[in-house]
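Re: duplicated header lines in exported structure tokens

Our pipeline writes sequence and tokens for each protein into one text file. With two proteins the header for the second block appears twice in some exports. Here is an export where it did not happen, for reference. First protein block:
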Amino acid sequence: MDTELDLTREGLEAENYAEDANKGTRFLNYIIDVVFFYIASLLVGLAIGAVVLMINPSSALFDEYDTPGENLIFQLISLVVYILYYTFFEYFNNGKTIAKIITKTRVVHEDASKSLDISTILGRSAARIVPFEAFSFLGSGDRGWHDRWSKTRVVKDR
């Protein structure tokens, strides 16, 4: 089965009526993606550590980082990995992260006549780091701020 979005007239009409994923599925997507984000972060951290040790074997990189500057660097790297995790998978995998593959859901543009482009996905991914964004699902509706701000929605895959 082809996983590309069908942008023919029939595909547009069908996409307009695609059923939104419910809050339970969205929460499961979040939990699964957080696990895979931590795995990706671990791999990035190991790669950075290996490169630093190859360049400078006596590096103190692995000492406890308790200075504000070192902590800030690790936090920024973590944010970049977080944004890249979602951007990479949703852009190069037709709107699907690992969790969305498992739960058979996908991200689509709320205007079905538009396809997902890199700026939409990057904006959606960056919006996730806004403080309290995860709580934006507690209100009515099944869309969080990152959905509304990027004009996207998560639907059940056909």
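Second protein block, exported in the same file:
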Amino acid sequence: MDAALAEQVDRELEGQLIGMLWTEKNDAEWDRYPSAGYATFAQRSFGVALLMHGRVACTYWAFHISDSAASVEVETAEPFRGRGLATITGWAWLEACQQRGLASEWIADADNQPSLKLALRLGHSPLRNVKKFIWKTWDQEIVLNYGGWKREPHPVGWKWSKINPP
């Protein structure tokens, strides 16, 4: 995902903050230099998006990258939900992680069943519940999942096999 596509994702999908998250400016400066965040994202992070008729239908992008894993943000635009597009885009995400030698780290609210089902469909396995660190609300839990993948040739394309974390 380049800077222009990251900006399109922010513009078209509510709640996506790629540019703001990746800006090195403070909040007061964000309004004056919004494109700095997109350029920084394109240099330091990665993501994939599925476009339908020029509109962002689904996106996966790394909001945090460590030496071994990329934490993913996933969003499917409302009109495109329920069509399997998040699964298709998810396979592209896993390939992008694999090309970089990274595991995919899935973090979801424990009560977000669509997200949890998608994570399992893509081969992530639940590891543990952890406390959610949002303001003073410490009683909610999120499910933390990891998954690493390897790709092998298959008669109909590629076969993906899970690599268990060490």
